[in-house]
Amino acid sequence: MLRTSIFPSRYVQGAGALDSLDTELARLGTHAACLVDSNVAALLQPALSKAERVKLVVRSVDAACTERSVAAAAEWIRESGADIVVSFGGGKVVDTGRAAADDLRLPFVCVPTIAASDAPCSALAVIYDEEGRVVRDRFVRRNPDLVLLDTSLIVRAPVRFFIAGIGDALATFYEADACRQAYANNLCGGRGTALAFEAARLCRDTLFAHAVQAVDDCRAQIVTPDFDATLEATVLLSGIGFESGGVAAAHAIHHGLADLPSSHGLLHGEKVAIGVLASLFLSAVPDDERQRVFEFCRAVGLPTRLAEINVDVTDQAALETVAKRACRVGEIIHNEPYPVDAALVVAALKAMDRYARRFDNPI
């Protein structure tokens, strides 16, 4: 079996990184079409006005990534004559630009303004319908040509987004390691490379070492070495680890939770965190590892109880809905190195919730 890995071509992170945008874009072309999330357009205007070497044309867009929004963006970019596409904003604006750039075979630059997931470095665009339901995952032909994160901008976003990004990144090691043990495919057409698995391991270790302090720093909107290290883990290391290492139970359980209407107001990483915790009960994981992960989630502010994500642990029908969706034929939960069925997932969700009660009522 082939081993494969994919990466962004260039990654830039740091306080004031937006000041280097003109220089960075000049590596790729001379005329950039910029899709800017309408929620942050005013915040980005000073940085965009500094461009000298590259002509910028700017369009403010709503946070939606549908077939219609991608087609509209591609048409506007084509008419602008741009030779680079840049997306500024959260995941849906980024994915709109990613897909439109792919349609037009143009270089793509991603400038996230929040860090709620590990998607910025990937070749994945999630396409929704007009009602906000996921239609499909679209894998574009290549990863971004540039990912640029200005830490002084991201630290100003609500801390809940940063915590959710930690939840998404927490899954990376556990899922990549499952794929490694099971000889399962990653997301780019083969088995993971040693580099991908080590990126996933470093992601986990960095989170455990720095994320608790980083969350506190983010609440105070202070860019510190802990915040910087955690951000790199959630975006770059996790991005490489999930895409080139592989995904498994945690994200499959997320997919199941997403089928419950009560979970629709939750962030991706909040549901993924529950998936990570539940996955620790799909097999006989040593208790010290379970305790380490549960204590970490509590310390950074991630949910550890089903009630925290609007799921009643006594609602058998809801749990079965989650489990059946997670265990569909061909679903990524079957990348785990042992058989998994819906009954096991229901049992794991219940056991996880009971385990978390220990932290509510310590003996």
Quick structural gist:
The chain is an alpha/beta fold and about 375 residues long. The protein is built from 13 helices and eight strands.
Overview features:
two-stranded antiparallel sheet, single chain, EC 1.1.1.6, 12% strand, alpha/beta, 363 residues, 2 domains, Rossmann fold, Dehydroquinate synthase-like, alpha domain, zinc, six-stranded parallel β-sheet
Explain how this protein is built.
The chain has 363 residues and is of the alpha/beta class. Helices cover 50% and strands 12% of the residues. The protein contains 13 helices and 8 strands. The chain has helices at residues 21-26, 41-48, 67-80, 91-104, 151-154, 159-182, 194-219, 225-245, 249-258, 268-279, 287-300, 316-326, 342-360; strands at 11-14, 31-37, 55-61, 84-89, 108-112, 124-128, 134-139, 146-150. The strands form 2 sheets. The protein has a 6-stranded parallel sheet with strand order 1-8-5-4-2-3, sandwiched between helices. Helix 3 packs across helix 4, helix 6 runs antiparallel to helix 7 and helix 6 packs parallel to helix 8 (225-245). The longest helix is centred in the middle third of the chain and has 26 residues, at 194-219. The termini are far apart.
